[in-house]
Specification:
Radius of gyration of chain A: 22 Å
Number of helices of chain B: 8
Organism (chain A): Epibacterium ulvae
Membrane topology (chain A): Multi-pass membrane protein
Protein name (chain A): Putative hydroxymethylpyrimidine transport system permease protein
Number of strands of chain B: 9
Strand content of chain B: 15-25%
Subcellular location (chain A): Cell membrane
Oligomer: heterodimer
CATH topology of chain A: MetI-like fold
Bound molecules: adenosine-5'-triphosphate, magnesium ion
CATH architecture of chain B: 3-Layer(aba) Sandwich
Distance between the termini of chain A: 26 Å
GO cellular component, one term (chain A): plasma membrane
Structural class of chain B: alpha/beta
Number of strands of chain A: 0
Number of domains of chain A: 1
Distance between the termini of chain B: 44 Å
Helix content of chain B: 25-40%
Order of helices and strands of chain A: HHHHHHHHHH
Structural class of chain A: mainly alpha
Largest interface: A-B, 23 and 29 residues
CATH topology of chain B: Rossmann fold
């Protein structure tokens, strides 16, 4: 309840600041529309916004699920195979020297203007944080537990599944939390480079037609979506690690 | 990559558990940890190892558990008569090492589950009841006191059913009454196995040791213990005399 009050107060302050900027800053409406105008557009264009938001939402969710799964599997693979650690890990680190954004045109070229290229963008952008956070945690299983498992004569993959992976879940969760914030960025960039649907596409379109109020409306929808995603993922992560004290 | 396979309880040779043997000097890097010493734990007997903190008791015990990678032993150790100890040892380490995300029943059956054998939940529950935790079976370790956690670790060790059992200060966190009860339980459950029990408590050694060894910087001394069965009564003259004698010895040897 307290948190809700907090957020409401914050939003209110933001709106007041925004309105006073428009009123006293003497800014023309085509640069910064007043909040009332944006609210109007939000309501009138709700169907249009929803249509594009659903596309972006789908891209983000698919990218998140795929990126987190592939990241998790890669982390376990790196942990289990010394060979992979020697050859694949440096490659992963090196790959981070290429900004994912720079790949966007290429992905669009290869995967087309549809959903796939945006999912790939989101996936690529979250793959590394998930993999590296989970892998680091997997490599740091407390020595005492590993020794106990060895004396008990546990098999490698059972120890992995029953001890190392559960013990590393807090690491996976912190990777996932980052991913939830990054995934929308990936999808939007992908849409900017080439798309016919989605909030990013809508923002470009609105900008081109000087409909700044629509652009702001899309931005607000995107922010709200990202916020909700963050809260949901955070709750999920808390659940995942609630027994790790 | 794997940890190797494990022996089934039938190959583990409970009928004739191996004795333990070590002679030599142990170092970690260039640092001398203990030695030169000669150590022997008799097969099927309960051996208590006493000695000041930092003298190398845990290091020695862990060698028998196969956890001596960091240690360079200039000498020999292992099962007496060359018996291999791999997969016939149960270890209760100095820390409880419980998994915080598992409840007590799952913690106690961890060994079976990581070996891929069917966990015996009925036995786990019986053991948890015998260590006085039947009301907590579905709780997690974080909801327990230090002494309760130590009893879960004891139950997990007793679950393992191995011919050689290594106990590193297993009752250190318990009150006098619970401690005596747990000593009774362990002595009963582990009868006939080769037990190496590291303890700081002369009274405990006097109750449980068929054989009592005192380890100091200068070596290991075998202190004659009465040939009576264990656990000895905590307040019998025999136990109290031995306890006093051990205490005196620990005070004098530096
Ligand atoms: N990894 C290590 N590297 C270097 N020295 C170590 C290492 N582990 C233990 N030691 C040293 O070895 C000595 C013996 O340690 P050990 O844990 O065997 O003692 P202990 O007799 O079990 O003591 P306590 O009764 O306090 O448990 C100590 O002086 C300790 O500092
Ligand atoms: Mg110790």
């Amino acid at each position: 309840m307290n948190r809700l009050k907090h957020i409401t107060a914050l939003i209110l302050m933001f709106l007041i600041l925004w309105q006073s900027l428009v009123t006293f800053g003497d800014l023309p409406a085509f640069l910064l529309p007043p909040p009332s105008k944006v609210a109007q557009t939000l309501w009138h264009s709700r169907a249009l916004l929803a249509e594009h938001a659903i596309v972006t939402g789908l891209e983000v969710l698919l990218g998140l699920v795929l990126g987190a799964s592939i990241g998790a599997v890669t982390a376990v693979w790196l942990t289990a195979s010394q060979l992979a650690r020697h050859f694949v890990r440096p490659l992963l680190v090196f790959s981070q020297t290429i900004p994912v954004f720079a790949l966007a045109p290429l992905l669009t070229l290869w995967l087309g203007y549809g959903l796939l290229s945006k999912v790939a963008m989101a996936l690529l952008i979250i793959f590394f944080p998930v993999t590296s956070a989970f892998f680091d945690a997997l490599m740091r299983t407390p020595a005492g537990w590993m020794e106990q498992a060895r004396v008990m004569g546990g098999s490698y993959w059972r120890v992995m599944w029953l001890i190392r992976i559960p013990a590393a879940l807090p690491g996976f969760a912190s990777g996932l939390r980052l991913a939830a914030v990054y995934a929308p960025i990936g999808a939007i960039i992908g849409e900017w480079v080439g798309a016919s649907k989605g909030l990013g596409y809508l923002m470009l379109l609105a900008n081109g037609r000087a409909k700044i109020d629509l652009m702001f409306a899309a931005l607000i929808v995107l922010a709200v979506f990202t916020l909700i995603l963050h809260v949901v993922v955070d709750k999920g992560c808390q659940k995942l690690t609630r027994n790790h004290t | 990559m794997g940890f190797g396979t494990w022996a089934s309880p039938h190959d583990a040779g409970l009928s004739a558990p191996p004795g333990l043997y070590l002679s030599g000097t142990a170092k970690i890097g260039e640092t001398l940890i203990f030695g030169p010493v000669i150590f022997e734990a008799l097969p099927g007997q309960w051996t208590c190892l006493l000695g000041p903190s930092g003298v190398g008791k845990s290091t020695l015990l862990r060698l028998f558990a196969g956890l001596g990678e960091a240690v360079t032993l200039d000498g020999t150790f292992g099962g007496k008569d060359g018996t291999s100890l791999s997969n016939c040892v149960a270890l209760m380490a100095q820390e409880d090492l419980l998994m915080p995300w598992l409840d007590l029943r799952q913690n106690v059956t961890l060994g079976a589950r990581i070996r891929g054998t069917r966990p015996d939940f009925a036995k786990a529950e019986t053991l948890l009841a015998r260590v006085g935790l039947e009301a907590h079976i579905h709780k997690r370790p974080s909801e327990l006191s230090g002494g309760q956690r130590q009893r879960v670790a004891l139950a997990r060790t007793l679950m393992e059913d191995r011919p050689v059992v290594l106990l590193d200060e297993p009752f250190s966190a318990l009150d006098a009454r619970t401690r005596a009860e747990m000593q009774d339980l362990a002595a009963e459950t582990l009868a006939g196995r080769t037990v190496l029990h590291v303890t700081h408590d002369p009274g405990e050694a006097a109750r449980l040791g068929h054989q009592i060894l005192v380890m100091t910087e200068t070596g290991i001394t075998d202190i004659p213990a009465p040939a009576t069965s264990i656990p000895r009564m905590y307040d019998s003259t025999e136990t109290l005399d031995l306890q006093g004698q051990l205490h005196r010895l620990l005070m004098e040897r530096r």
